[in-house]
Write a structure and sequence with these properties.
By secondary structure, the protein is mainly β. The protein has 3 domains: 82 residues, Immunoglobulin-like; 74 residues, Sandwich (Immunoglobulin-like), CATH 2.60.40; 85 residues, Immunoglobulin-like, CATH 2.60.40. Helix content is 13%, strand content 46%. It contains 2 helices and 23 strands. The strands form 6 sheets. A 4-stranded antiparallel β-sheet has the order 1-3-6-5, with no helix packed on it. A hairpin with a 5-residue loop joins strand 12 and strand 13. The longest helix is centred in the first third of the chain and has 32 residues. The relative contact order is 0.11. Keywords: Signal.
Length: 301
């Protein structure tokens, strides 16, 4: 009886041991079959990303490869401006980013939640941050043929609805044109066909329309003032006398170069002591018309 119990116990022990070994083997087998999580890796050198989190290029396009990832990956880029976002093209593991600004922030993530972020810094002249300031005469239109960059196909993104200080546009040759409308300053945003945006500040210098033979205005010191003379023969006006005989006071007839004016302009420059003072400018036209402009100068507040 005792011998039989020993045999049964040995059988039970052997069966349990085998079952345990099978379970252990199955567990090991399952572990081996589970794919290990791939570490997210790009073709950009790790040292470069670790030290500066920035890559450099002299181009308007930047490319890299996603060498390893856990599952599918996504590429997200920051907006170049509120008007445009760089275009991202993914072809297999190869990523191409069309740059629209000097700095572009990029984030690559995979299905495991791994993430690599970095900045692309481009030194291409079309992408460098630039802000342009243009001073224009009241009553005239200015053309800027040298204001060109990028792919052409220039357009105005914003600004023409602000203050109506000036109107900005581009002609069929992508030449910048600024038409002054009233005294003051306003900001505009323009872009080329790629979407690269730049900021323009337009300052229309002080000016007043002269529509009759007498005009009186108040200005500050110092100041440059333009008076479009909107009567009499165009091209026939001249300054015959003034309170102060200075070479900075004269009549502009037909400007040359990049300026178009529909009328003769009286140009005066005031730069005297801050004490209140009055200046008079006497005009005559070859057609017999006459006029006088009075400028009362007050201290700038």
């Amino acid at each position: 009886m005792i011998e039989k119990m020993k045999r049964n116990y040995a059988t039970w022990l052997f069966t349990g041991l085998c079952a345990g070994l099978l379970t252990l083997f199955a567990a090991c087998h399952d572990t081996i079959d589970d794919p290990t999580e791939e570490e997210l890796q790009l073709s950009i050198p790790v040292k470069q990303l670790a030290s500066m989190q920035e890559v450099a290029t002299a181009d308007t396009v930047y490319t890299f490869d996603v060498l390893k990832s856990s599952g599918a990956f996504k590429v997200k880029v920051g907006e170049a401006s509120k008007y445009a976002t760089p275009k991202v093209t993914v072809n297999g593991q190869h990523v191409t980013i069309g740059l629209l600004a000097e700095f572009t922030y990029v984030t690559v993530t995979d299905e495991a939640g791994q993430e690599i972020s970095f900045n692309i810094h481009s030194s291409h002249e079309d992408l460098l941050s630039q802000s342009n300031v243009y001073y224009v005469w009241y009553g005239c239109t200015f053309h800027y043929p040298k204001f060109k960059y990028g792919l052409g196909n220039m357009r105005v993104l914003s600004g023409n609805d602000n203050k109506r200080v000036a109107s900005v546009s581009f002609d069929e040759n992508n030449e910048l044109k600024i038409e002054s409308e009233k005294n003051g300053s306003s900001y505009f945003t323009v872009a080329d066909g790629r979407g690269v945006a730049r900021s323009l500040q337009v300052v229309v210098e002080e000016g007043y329309d002269m529509t009759t033979d007498s005009l009186e205005v108040t200005s500050t010191n110092p100041s440059t003032i333009y008076f479009p003379i909107k009567y009499g023969k165009r091209g026939g006006w001249k300054l015959v006398d003034s309170s102060e005989h200075r070479p900075t006071d004269y009549v502009i007839h037909l400007p040359s170069g990049n300026v178009d004016c529909d009328y003769d302009l009286l140009h005066v420059y005031i730069n005297q002591a801050y004490a209140a003072k009055q200046y008079k400018y006497y005009l005559e036209n070859e057609d017999g018309s006459k006029g006088v402009v009075v400028v009362n100068v007050v201290k700038k507040k």
